[in-house]
Amino acid sequence: MKVKELIRLLKQEDQEKLVIMSSDGEGNSFSPLADFGDTDYYLAYSTWSGEIGYSKLTEKQKAEGYGDGDILAKGVLALVIYPTN
Fold first, then answer.
1. CA-to-CA distance for 57 and 44, rounded, in angstroms?
2. Where are the domains of the chain?
3. I want to staple 78 with a disulfide (CB 3.0 to 4.6 A). Which of 26, 42, 46, 66 is the partner?
4. Structure pTM?
5. Tens digit of pLDDT per residue, the chain (85 long)?
């Protein structure tokens, strides 16, 4: 799903609803949406799993401890969202 598709779907919802994330596709546990991360690369290993990384690091990310191992040479642009737990 792309951001524009998510926005379209969210516009149809009651804007006062709490956003809850499932831990997996089967709905085995749930947690409120806590934050969204940097927009950068996602490299898929399969249709359901992959890794995230950065195309380049900002000075802030370097200060937070990110290094060359966190850079991906390829992938698709992605927005990462994080659950509370």
1. 21
2. 3-83
3. 42
4. 0.71
5. 899 999 999 999 999 999 999 988 888 899 999 988 876 899 999 988 999 999 889 999 999 999 999 999 889 999 888 888 7
d(CA 71, CA 51) in angstroms, rounded, equals 11
With tokens 């799993």, the residue in question is 49
Q: Which 8-state DSSP code applies to residue 54? A: B
Measured CA to CA, the distance from residue 22 to residue 32 in angstroms comes to 9
Tokens of 85: 């737990």
Residue 60, H or E segment: helix 59-63
Amino acid residing at 83? P
| Cβ-proximal residues to 45 (8 Å cutoff; 6+ apart), any chain | 51
The residue whose two tokens read 């709490």 is: 18
How many Å from the N-terminal Cα to the C-terminal Cα in the chain?
A: 23
